[in-house]
Amino acid sequence: MTPRTAPGAARPVTPASILAARLESLVGRAGGTGLEDELREVRDLAVGLDPYVESMTSPESPALADLAAATAAFDWRDASGSLEQEMLSGHVEGRFLAMLAHATRARRVLEVGMFTGYSALALAEALPDDGSVVALELDESVAAFAQEQFARSSAGRRIDVRVGPAAETLRALAGESFDLVFVDADKAGYADYLETVLTTGLLAPGGLVCVDNTLMQGQPWAGPDTENGRAIAEFNAAVAADPRVEQVVVPLRDGITLIRAVS
Ligand SMILES: C[S@@+](CC[C@H](N)C(=O)[O-])C[C@H]1O[C@@H](n2cnc3c(N)ncnc32)[C@H](O)[C@@H]1O
């Protein structure tokens, strides 16, 4: 397992940022090879991508910026399970999810895997006053952390947190339906969560499912071979072969797959 980073010192966890860090390191070691200038150009292309995308995207709300800062300032090395600051989706992905909520005119949103609540709050901010986000989280302490943040913003009152294993909470939600579902919990559980959402009426007719980390740091095509990489590779292949759905993999951050039911 990768050691958790000190507060504020996030490590690269997306294909683009990993590529940028690797190229930075290669530039540092390229002296005398004759490849320095070319490598620098390639490095600049990779290193500038995320900051450029971020600077051209509408800014995050003060409440989201505060939540991200509180998450980065917390020392996750003492936290339970595998929680780490890098789990937070962040500015551009939050805007993307909010844009999807607007575009689909979502009123009811379900999130599977909340962490400190960044995506839940980004989605809640995009909903009408009578809208709601039901956010599922396994870890009681991180759920409490998120709820403290939600209490500071008016959109936070639209978020209903349910603590427990998502598989159980999803079954307990039978009878409810959601216009937009964001899946971002344990990768080994993804196939089960999608199946439950598609087959039990949780996804409203015409609803959209968004699944995070479907590029999993590039592991499905470039390795290394890890448990999460295998889980995502299997999940992606199963979705690609599933005639019940249509999907597109968006290479934003660590990959988001958008899925809709077609039969
Ligand atoms: C990647 S983080 C979610 C990040 C969050 N959506 C965001 O955008 O900031 C994954 C979260 O899923 C939670 N989780 C893991 N397994 C779970 C399970 N079986 N049921 C519910 N939540 C789970 C973890 O505790 C963690 O907080």
Automatic annotation (TrEMBL):
Keywords: Methyltransferase, S-adenosyl-L-methionine, Transferase. CDD domains: AdoMet_MTases. GO terms for biological process: methylation. Pfam families: Methyltransf_3. GO terms for molecular function: methyltransferase activity. Its EC number is 2.1.1.-. This is Class I SAM-dependent methyltransferase.
